[in-house]
Write a structure and sequence with these properties.
- Helices cover about 45% and strands about 10% of the residues.
- It is an alpha/beta fold.
- An eight-stranded parallel beta sheet has the order 1-8-7-6-5-4-3-2.
- Helix 5 packs parallel to helix 6 and helix 6 (about 105-115) packs parallel to helix 7.
- The protein is globular and about 55 Å long.
Length: about 280
């Protein structure tokens, strides 16, 4: 069984997308408006995005579940597959904490999303309880992800390692930067390709993280955050929006409904995409 797994080879088109996603981290800034279903992914790609990232929150909400591994691994992978089949650009899947604490759990999840068509993953170092795996524990999980990608025939899988030190306020504030740097060293050695630090938008701290460790840094932005040019000047190489785009879309639905039921008017729907533009985003 192990021999047959090692002999697998991902399709050439998927390998090419993995190589492209990797290249997009090496020059300029990779901008990722996160998709939550096939339709949002198609619109994002049609608008010019060079790659599509999923958002675990949005994907879960689209299926009527809460974020935080509210979906099963199989359900999540199925939805990622719909997204990957709707676009021609590389897709990187948010696999949250790997759908289980053990390295084998992470490996099974990586295998599932590669089979679904993804060429990158976003893997967190936090547990559902809100505390973090030790750097060594997370290192073992990253190595399991890399082995699973090799066995699935996609050794070029891009592993974006999310550390939640800042997002969850782990430890004393003055020690968080050092904690992230120590973790980054372990994660890089284990095979991570980039470092995602949500909850951190201090440009000076980001610039030091860029300088003091080897991985490309991913920041999560949104309203009130520094601009793309400011983050790029700090050395950030990847900027994503998390659940923000999905939240904005749901806000339109809520406002339009409240206006319809209240004033009986339709102003919240102004500025919508043309029907033909949306319908034309789907080629198959």
């Amino acid at each position: 069984m192990a021999h047959s797994q090692q002999a697998q080879q991902a399709p050439q088109s998927q390998q090419a997308k993995a190589a492209l996603l990797r290249e997009l981290h090496s020059d300029g800034v990779l901008l990722l408006p996160n998709a939550w279903d096939a339709g949002s992914a198609a619109v994002i790609a049609a608008a010019g995005a060079k790659a599509v990232a999923t958002t675990s929150g949005g994907v879960s909400w689209s299926a009527g579940r809460p974020d935080g591994q509210g979906l099963t691994r199989e359900e999540m992978a199925g939805l990622v597959g719909r997204i990957a089949s709707a676009v021609d650009v590389p897709v990187t899947a948010d696999i949250e904490g790997g759908y289980g604490p053990a390295p084998e759990d992470v490996a099974a999840t990586v295998t599932a999303v590669i089979e679904a068509g993804a060429v990158g993953v976003n893997l967190e170092d936090s547990k559902p309880t809100g505390d973090l795996f030790t750097a060594e524990e997370q290192g073992a999980r990253i190595r399991a992800a890399r082995r699973a990608a090799e066995q699935a025939g996609l050794p070029g899988l891009v592993v974006n390692l999310r550390t939640d030190v800042f997002l969850f306020g782990i430890g004393e504030p003055e020690g968080r930067e050092a904690d992230v740097l120590a973790r980054a060293a372990v994660y890089a050695e284990a095979g991570a390709d980039s470092l995602f630090v949500p909850g951190l938008l201090d440009l000076e701290v980001l610039a030091r993280l860029v300088k003091d460790q080897s991985l490309p840094v991913n920041a999560m932005a949104g309203p009130g955050a520094p601009s793309v040019s400011q983050l790029a000047a700090a050395g950030v190489r990847r900027i994503s929006l998390g659940t923000a785009v999905a939240q904005a879309a749901y806000a339109v639905a809520q406002r339009a409904t409240a206006e319809l039921l209240g004033a009986g008017t339709y102003g919240a729907l102004e500025g919508a995409l043309d029907y033909g533009a949306v319908n034309g985003s789907f080629s198959r």
